[in-house]
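Q: Please design a sequence for this.
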């Protein structure tokens, strides 16, 4: 059995890590490069950076920040925001990122996934999905809708159908974020996570709602996620990566522990 991964997300706006609840009320928390170095030293498995306003502002990803992070950490990290072409992906990878996360712009241009996978390999392409619970029926048989532009634009696209399509196009992983749970620290959306995990053949990262080790344990087992993404739990100093991993290991969940 593969180890479950612990991933920390850093949402970046104006070169500051920021955190909100359900994509609103954001407050700034610190320098992304300093926080990346801190979490790397603390034993996190991977890092994810989202330049959260790049797509909406129609500007490219902040490559200087990517390069600065790459000089500080020696674990996989993915970046997203403003990635609109294979050339943008190449620039981010050359700056030091290991994976590229595509979200809003991939919904608008699904060929972006296929072209990226063809150029760099499936393992480099992560589909970011921001998903909101809706009524079951019609165009939304799963009861979950994909929303883009930082939660501002409903797409009318069913989440499960989009996940399957993205896998066929070449996405190597899905980072599945529940807008309803995002930042609440009340627990992950287990039903959503299990739905996607059981219906695609690529790894699924659960995102949105992590507040306690109980929440992580639930989404990694009942939710069948391959990894759990956290933010507030560590950003506010309530937990450490080492402490979380020790707790999960005591529950019999296989995690990577420093020897």
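A: Design:
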């Amino acid at each position: 059995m593969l180890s479950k991964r612990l991933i920390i997300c850093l949402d970046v706006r104006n070169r500051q890590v920021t955190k909100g609840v359900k994509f609103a009320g954001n407050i700034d928390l610190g320098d992304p490069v300093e926080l990346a170095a801190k979490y790397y030293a603390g034993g996190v498995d991977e890092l994810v950076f989202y330049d959260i306003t790049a797509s909406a502002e129609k500007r490219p990803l902040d490559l200087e920040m990517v390069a600065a992070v790459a000089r500080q950490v020696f674990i996989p990290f993915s970046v997203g925001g403003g990635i609109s072409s294979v050339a943008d992906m190449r620039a981010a990878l050359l700056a030091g990122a290991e994976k590229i996360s595509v979200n809003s712009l991939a919904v608008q241009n699904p060929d972006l996934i296929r072209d990226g996978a063809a150029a760099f390999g499936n393992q480099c392409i992560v589909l970011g999905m921001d998903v909101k619970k809706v009524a079951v029926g019609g165009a939304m048989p799963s009861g979950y809708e994909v929303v883009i532009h930082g939660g501002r634009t409903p797409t009318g696209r069913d989440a499960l159908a989009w996940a399957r399509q993205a896998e066929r196009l070449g996405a190597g992983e899905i980072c599945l974020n529940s807008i309803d749970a995002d930042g609440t620290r009340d627990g992950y959306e287990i039903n959503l996570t299990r739905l996607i995990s059981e219906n695609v053949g690529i790894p699924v990262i659960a995102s949105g709602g992590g507040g306690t080790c109980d929440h992580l344990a639930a989404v990694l087992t009942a939710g069948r996620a391959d990894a759990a993404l956290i933010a507030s739990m560590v950003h506010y100093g309530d937990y450490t990566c080492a402490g979380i991993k020790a707790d999960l290991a005591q529950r019999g969940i296989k995690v990577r522990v420093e020897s």
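Q: Thanks. Anything notable?
A: DSSP finds ten helices and twelve strands in the chain. The longest strand covers residues 5-13.
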